[in-house]
Amino acid sequence: MAQSASMEDFEALLNESFEIDTPSEGSVVRGKIIAIEAGQAIIDVGYKMEGRVDLKEFSNPGEAPEVTVGDEVEVYLDRVENARGEAVISRDKARREEAWDRLEKAYAEDSRVEGAIFGRVKGGFTVDLGGAVAFLPGSQVDVRPVRDAGPLMGLKQPFQILKMDRRRGNIVVSRRAILEESRAEQRAEIIGKLNEGDAVDGVVKNITEYGAFVDLGGVDGLLHVTDMAWRRVNHPSEILSIGETVKVQVIKINKETHRISLGMKQLQADPWDSVERKFPLGTVHKGRVTNITDYGAFVELEPGVEGLVHVSEMSWTKKNVHPGKIVSTSQEVDVMVLEIDTAKRRVSLGLKQTMRNPWEVFSETHPIGTEVEGEVKNITEFGLFIGLDNDIDGMVHLSDLSWDQRGEEAIQEYRKGDMVRAVVTEVDTDKERISLSVKALEGDPFAEAVGGVKRGSIITVTVTAIEDGGIEVEYEGMKSFIRRSDLSRDRSEQRPERFQVGDHVDVRVTNIDTKTRRLGLSIKAREIAEEKEAVEQYGSSDSGASLGDILGAALKGEDR
Asked: Any idea where the S1 motif domain is (predicted)?
């Protein structure tokens, strides 16, 4: 019985020793390099088991292996024995298992890991994290796009694990997160030393359309294009270049976002402080056109001081044209200072004020009655516009086209481009109007005809037409009409048919209308006037004489 018990104990101890000494497949074991031959290391992993591992598995990417006989290393046991009786082992797998354990711990603690970029793949790079291979997206290499990643290859540096999946063997890392973190710390330290109003030196790192980024020694500030100079700057490249050292002033610091606004012009004298002294109202100065808009043109009087020439102040004669048809960019022009508002930093300028008012010049050189000639520029319902000197127009009203024709009829005889002669009848410089008359070229037949005629005069007219309402008569070529009620003082004699065409009739002038060019005539008024005159000469209301006696006496007096 005792012998049987001792055999069982021996067997249990033997099995226990086998379990302790024999490593299980799929685990990491420690071995010793006993030889190096044919590019491989022969490793004794214990229990009289040996395996072979390529030397390249002992090196980091881009480095030579550093192993010697006698070194103790950890390897991964795939199988206890292969066809040749050797253990199947791997240094890479051992490093990978060790790395994954270490990386999972670092990922859980949100700590940094060390690695080296060793290859380029689609969309990014591969990184060796001490046995495990991770993917580095191109957007996570640096805070700014990297054109050449060559200097970063093989360089050991810290990375931040963004995502990892051991089952799928995926690890995504970021170098940018590390840089941004250290950059934020550096920015905070530098910004803590800066104060608004400080003048500092910086280096231009980047130029955009709206400004330039200036490195202040580890932190960037934005120098906006409007803060580069007092004058208008169309593009920052006009005055800055990348790599140039510039002196700037800290305008504003945002402690939360760490954004810094910089300025250059703030270190220079403000030209607006002396604008009123240098450019008094009413003075004329030479300037350069810097910008043209729909409403006018901006003219630079000196660097930093621009004024606006409104479109209404550009030309005396060109009223409805775009400013670009009057001036061009970079053109030098003479302008007059019309108004200054230093608070709003505005100067109103005039271009036309540097030239004489063409209507004043015309008024001086063309007095009333002067004869002019010009081309018909436009024809409207109320008259003709005639082109005159210095791009100004004069207008011939319908009523000034003809003595004989109605204006609507006379204007039909004219066409655009016709050359027309006319007489200046009025010049209004304030309203910029010139009135012309074509008919004034000839004498006024009406004025000539009635030159010696006054209201109350007795004239002889010729009957030219008989109508129901009266008769048409003519005097010195001028037509007039005598209404039925004016044909006689006696109602029974107010009959147009008692006259014949060609009859000569004495009439009294009751009205002279120069506008309608008509004479007011009346036979009745003449008879009443004659009766009144006879009464005054030959009788009175107290004499008792009859009207027939008086008229008879008057007639006898005329016979004598």
From this structure: 26-92, 110-176, 197-265, 282-352, 369-439, 456-524
Query: What are the tens digits of pLDDT across the range 44-78?
Result: 767 677 778 777 767 665 566 777 777 777 776 76
- Residue pair 472/464 in contact (Cβ under 8 Å)? The answer is yes
User: CA quadruple 507, 511, 517, 522: dihedral positive or negative?
Assistant: negative
Pairing of strands 211-215, 419-428: unpaired
What's the burial of 211, exposed, middle or buried (CB within 10 Å: 0-12/13-18/19+)? buried
* pLDDT tens-digit map of 159-189: 999 998 888 888 999 998 888 777 777 777 7
Instruction: Enumerate the H helices of 56-175 as residue ranges.
Output: 91-109
Q: What percent of the chain has pLDDT over 70?
A: 84
Q: Which residues contact 60 (CB under 8 A, 6 or more apart)?
A: 116, 128
Length of the chain, in residues = 560
**Cross-strand pairs, 57:** none
- Cα separation, 286 vs 193, whole angstroms: 47
Indicate whether 192 pLDDT > 70: yes
**Distance between CA atoms of residues 37 and 50, nearest Å:** 14
Q: What pTM did the predictor assign?
A: 0.45
Closest CA to 211 of 173, 181, 251, 239: 239
pLDDT of residue 104: 85
